[in-house]
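Example 3.2
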Amino acid sequence: MLYASSMPLRLVLVDDQPSFRSALSAYIATVPELVLVGEAGDGESAFEVIDQLEPDVVLMDWQLPDIDGIEATRQVRQAHPDMPVVMLSGSSDRQMRREAKAAGIAAVIHKNDVAKALLPEIKAAVARRARSFASNSSPAT
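Structure, written as tokens:
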């Protein structure tokens, strides 16, 4: 799917903390370029929600009760290879960031930085995906 700039980007939020999901949902509601279409509190329900709603971007917590966010992202990207996943973490662990990048995560945002970093990181992830889609769709010369 190519993204029309006039349409808000559809997000699914995966985080096991209801209070964080609620706060982030309220924040996203104030950003006209974004719309939250679904939420999940664990990996298993995340896969169902993502498969059903096919969002433009997934916001994935690093630590979930049944699976870590990196492994969940691998599974999401296996089923939806073009779907950007942005990792949310309360940690600044460098090893986690390396593993996240290796798993194909588009960006890692510290939960304390969500308000300033979320929209720019999502836009950058979507732009990279659109460029990748365009370069893979170009006819060979």
